[in-house]
Amino acid sequence: MNTQKKYWESRFQEEEKIWGNQSSQSAKWAHQFFQKRGNVKRVLVLGAGYGRNSRFFSQRKYDVSGIEISTRALKIAVRFDPVTNFYQGSILDLPSIPELNNIRFDAVYGFNVLHLFLKEERKNILTFTYNLLKSPGYAVFTVFSDKEESIGKGKYVEYNTFESKPGRPVHYFTEKDLHIHFKYFQIIETKLYEETENHGRTGFHIHKLYYIALKKP
C-alpha cells in the first residue's frame, strides 16, 4: 500500500464523512458553469471521496462517474450516492481503468485534489483529464492557494510543496501557477475564495482556495 493510499484509508476509517454531508460551494458554481455551456451531461469527479460532491451532481441528473483511492471511502460512497458509478484507484491510474478510458466526458470536476500531488504527477493528471474530455469539454478545479495559513508547515518537498502529514504532500498554487498548469486549456474564470469546511473533530476551518473554470477547445 503506497503512502498516499495508507493516509486516506486511515483517515476515512477513523473519521468516515470527514467534511460532512454538504457539497462544496464550488460544486454549485461548477453546476452553474456547466449549465451555461449547455449539453453537459456526463461528468467525472476526481477524488470522489465518500460522495458528497458527486451526489450533488447526480441529484441534478448528470451521468456521474467518480474515482477514489480509498476502499473505505468508496464503501461509504456507494450508500451515500448510489446513483454514481464509482471506480477505485489513484487519479494517476486513470489511463489503466478501461471503463473510464472507453468514455469521453463532457466535464471533469476536481475539488481540492490536484494540489495533493507533486509537480510531474500534476502534469500527468491534467494530461489524462484533457484526454478524457470531449471537444469541446469543460473542467472545474479548486486548489489550495499560497494564501493558505498552512503554507510552509511540514517538510519541504519541492517548490511551494510541503508535507505536514506523512503521505500527504500539499502544493500551494500561485496565480502564475494556475496559468502554467492549465496552459492547454482555455481559462474561462479564476477566483480566490474562502471555503468553510467542517473538519469534524477539529471543528470548522476556512481554506483560501483558487477556483478555476476551463474549456477544452
Q: Quick summary of this structure?
A:
It is built from seven helices and ten strands. It is α/β, with parallel strands linked by helices and about 220 residues long.
Which labels suit this protein?
single chain; 217 residues; alpha/beta; Rossmann fold; three-stranded antiparallel sheet; 10 strands; 34% strand
What report would you give on this structure?
- By secondary structure, the protein is an alpha/beta fold.
- Helices cover 31% and strands 34% of the residues.
- The protein has seven helices and ten strands.
- A hairpin with a 5-residue loop joins β9 and β10.
- The longest helix is centred in the middle third of the chain and has 14 residues.
- The protein is globular, with a radius of gyration of 16 Å.
